[in-house]
Design goal:
There is one protein chain. With about 290 residues, this protein is mainly α. Helix content is about 70%, strand content about 0%. The chain contains twelve helices and two strands, in the order ααββαααααααααα. Strands 1-2 form a two-stranded antiparallel sheet. α3 packs antiparallel against α7, α3 crosses α11 and α8 runs parallel beside α12. The protein is globular and about 65 Å long.
Length: about 290
Amino acid sequence: MASKSEQPQYTRVFLTFARNSLIRDMTFRANFIIECIASLSWTMMNLGFYLLIFSQIEQRRIADWHQFEFFAFIATTWIVNSIVQTFFMPNAQEFSELIRTGNLDFALLKPIDTQFLISLQKMDWSSLSNFVAGGVLLVVSLWRLAGDPAHPLTVTPLLAGMYLFYLACGVAIMYSLMVSLAATSIWLGRNQTLYDFWFYITNFSRYPMEIYNGPFGAPLQWFFTFIIPVLIVVNVPARIVAQPLRPETSVGTSLALFAIAATVGCLLGSRWIFKRALLSYRSASS
């Protein structure tokens, strides 16, 4: 049994991973810049698409979201996705290769939590370009909402703190889903469709919950809120800043409380799936 002083310092290990990944990206600066430009270009085209839509709508609203409320929603989507794609996606995509080549054996032998090591050993810093774009769009949207003469938005420290908290909850839910999908590689051998399936599932989180109604939309809203809770990933933090949750609004409050429960449940569930999958792993030497 290792002594307490021999336990890995996870913060230092994380910073080492981050530094090594940044050095690797900066070794090929031209490629890094091109990836940033490509990512930002897609983001700007996405924004231009919504600007075009709002220019054709007389009331400038989609469902219950006015233009800059919706842009705050889109900004939150970019921020969450950029964090996931920077820190977790590169590692999840390579997990099946670790199994196929037997390199997972070396990860299991290291004196550090295997899930932590596999989740964070590589980072794609170019994906943070969308984080910057999302932050700029969020600031502009909140500034325009604060200048609304009819219903001005007041951003308080409590509001900002709640936004960051539920933003972290959204990232945790996305991470849990990604870890669960990656862990299936142990049972399936190679899961080359991970990214495609991830895109199909998370695509539902990119839009406000209000659009999922009617005989077909309502079941989707229920399923992707309470079974696979991707709808609360962006909807809850975006509502906090664009449509602030109020105690007298029972639906909003219950959704916020459920988001906390869903985050804890997803983290525990993904941890259980990952450890369960490792029990089925057969090393390359066996």
